[in-house]
Amino acid sequence: MFYIKDNKRNLTDEKRETFSSGLAVFFATLGSAVGLGNIWKFPTLVGMNGGGAFVLVYFICILLLGIPVMISEFYIGRSTRSNPVGAFNKLKAKPFWKIIGYLGVSGALFIMFFYSAVAGWVYSYIFKAIKGDFLNISSLSIHQAGETVSSIFESTVGASISPIIWQAIALAVVGIILFAGVKNGIEKITKTLMPLLFTLIIIICIRSLTLEGARDGLSFLFKVDFSKITPSVLLSALGLAFFKLSVGMGTMITYGSYFTENNNLINTSFKVAFSDTLVSILVGMAIFPVVFTFGLEPGAGPGLLFNTIPLVFSKIPFGNVLLIAFFLLTAFAATMAMLSLVEVPVVFMAEEWDLDRKKSVIITLLIMFIVGVLTVHPSSIFGHITLFGKNFFDLFDFISSNLILPIGGFLIAIFVGHKTKKADIIKELSNNGELDNSNKINIYITILKYITPLLLIIVFLNSIGII
Ligand code: PHE
Predict the structure, then answer these.
(1) Domains assigned to the chain
(2) Ligand 1 center from residue 69 Cα (angstroms)
């Protein structure tokens, strides 16, 4: 998958590949982190959970929960050079801890069930933009423009067959990339496309911030109203933090297993978390001014991105071309994130069940498609089926982000914080003493041992009403 390099500790195993350099590590990891989570989920949840208060809780979760778990996953991955189940064998951990790996495999599946559906919407929007469906909105009144984009969204996701076809296309693209063995090539393109996506988001931001609704948008995003912090806001911010950083389910164990020996694991986690959070905030700054300018509903739910983005581009010269570029780059980011999600069950099947890699890819993608089809929008064929009062889309999202990832994160924190020798952690995080970072390591270990698990328990008990 990546450049082949001998890696010192694995001479007894088959040769396992590693990333070629520190920069490759950074971009590949960022490629997993940045995706629909920033562009679609972040603004949707900020809107639904009342704005600034949610953003503040989210930041705290990234810092005290997400980053420590990410460092721990890197530690497990690089020190074992194994998949998330095999890693616990190598660490000679009790069989119980393999549950982290199994949870991860199921987490990847649950995320992909709905993620692939949203990726399908993005793909379909590329074609809508190319067809010129949004060309006339610039000539409409503010109110009509808002209504037009909403109805385009409703008819896109509410159609009975086309969302399923788009979902299949999104999964097929992932399959083709994995089959053609061009993943390495794709990872190199990330270095160019990520900065492009970033630049485009900045352009949207600048335009948005000069709209009439900019002030209201920004105050919605940044003004903290503590009364809005409810148990369910806490749980969703926590779930989003894990989802965003791709942690709690072994993705970063898998990535860590490909890291170079001299990579500074703590620094990489900070750089990735910082860049990822910056992208989310910029997307928020791009979207909420549009919401307030066009009188849309901030809590509109999953359609928020798809309604606001065509509106802001209608106010930019060559907007339609940029709109096409935006959805293309978003599709690219979503695909990179999907590659990292699919990787978890694929590597697991290939390494633990000795299955041929191609077969593992096919089985994984088929499961994702067959179950994923259930998540199509409420107004289309399976949409009316509900379980525990939620449709499948919301249910799979809830199970993965709000249950599997935080529980996985908790177990990882306990395993590394309490069941691993401190000396082993120090050795790995300081690259065998080469780095002079003992202060940082000590702070990390303290947070991981005491703060991370405690906060996780408090949020959980709070959300089920026990405290
Ligand atoms: N972090 C990705 C995103 O924000 C989603 C993801 C979650 C990817 C978990 C891998 C593992 O879109």
Answers:
(1) 11-463 (1.20.1740.10)
(2) 14
